Amino acid sequence: MSLLNTINSPSDMLKKLFREANEMAFEDDIERMSDLVANFSITSDSIREWCVSYQNQLSNKKALVAEWDMIPCLKAAKDIANSTKHVQITRYVPTVSGVNSGVSKTLELYMSHDISKELEEVKSNEVRRGELERDAPSFNIEFTDGRSISLHKFYSDTVREWLNYFDSNSIPRSPNLKATLIYMNRSLWPEII
Hints:
By secondary structure, this protein is α+β, with helices and mostly antiparallel strands. The chain has 8 helices and 3 strands. Helix content is 54%, strand content 13%. Strand 2 and strand 3 form a beta hairpin.
């Protein structure tokens, strides 16, 4: 049980993961982004413990960990979390070889506009894409096998995997938590959650 009275369930941890993903989606400072990547990864890795406890699966924990470790984004979160919390990972071989800073292109879309229409426009109109695009600090997650994924893919896939796990295992959560929420300005969240 958490000592924080606002975190009492797997659902509370899932909301925390959403908040951290949302902050990454809008962050413009690379140092703050670095903190968010570490925090998001630790939260994702901690959700494992909350799910094991909620489901009374302590005797099956090893099998669950092996299952979660087969999912690249969840394994990457575990590796990043452990490499952040400890000087080095010594209890297992990580699959992430590095997390390197860089810049990515993002689109700025506004709720007051027809987002579907704007997305269609940017697919076929480079001028329109240029008007909506901006550079944002980002990271690339590099794997020991030579693969890499963008920070955006990492956090969006991680959120989707946990949503799927909660739903597949009947772990209660807010029905309004949808993966697209991480891209919405947080001032709109109270109306949604």
